[in-house]
Amino acid sequence: MHQAIPYRTCIPTTSARDHSHAGGIAESNGADPANVATVVSENAVVIIGRRGCCMCHVVKRLLQGLGVNPPVYEVHEDHEATVARYLFPHAAEELQFPAVFLAGKLFGGLERVMATHISGELVPVLKDAGALWL
């Protein structure tokens, strides 16, 4: 019988005010954006979005349907700008949520993920990022 490969379902947080939830969702109630950078660098795929955002759920379900179990990092609306500035200090545009990071780099938002999926290019991109092994 084959044994399943273990995967991380919770995002570790270091702030005393952060709360991790089962299902790969971490809430950021603190203003420490370094947690987000750590999560992005340690995972092949990460979804960063607003707290309670239904589009984050859509992206997560799409990726789960392809065999990827992406963690979701929820950012409280009071800290969105801080997190965006920390991740992209020299960006001319503001980071829009949900933001999908592959292999530590910004892949895009919902539109990019859906367009790549429809064109059939998403699975190879996920394989290159190390999120899929098959």
TrEMBL record:
Stretches of the chain forming a coiled coil according to its record: none
Keyword Cytoplasm: yes
GO CC annotations on file: cytoplasm
UniProt keyword list: Cytoplasm, Redox-active center
Localisation: Cytoplasm
Record's keyword annotation contains Cytoplasm: yes
Principal subcellular localisation of the protein: cytoplasm
Pfam family, one: Glutaredoxin
InterPro entries named in the record: GlrX-like_pln_2, Glutaredoxin, Thioredoxin-like_sf
Domain of life: Eukaryota
Domain Glutaredoxin: 45-106
Family: Belongs to the glutaredoxin family. CC-type subfamily.
PANTHER family: GLUTAREDOXIN (PTHR10168)
Matches recorded under NCBIfam families: GlrX-like_plant (TIGR02189)
Protein name: Glutaredoxin domain-containing protein
Species name: Phaseolus coccineus
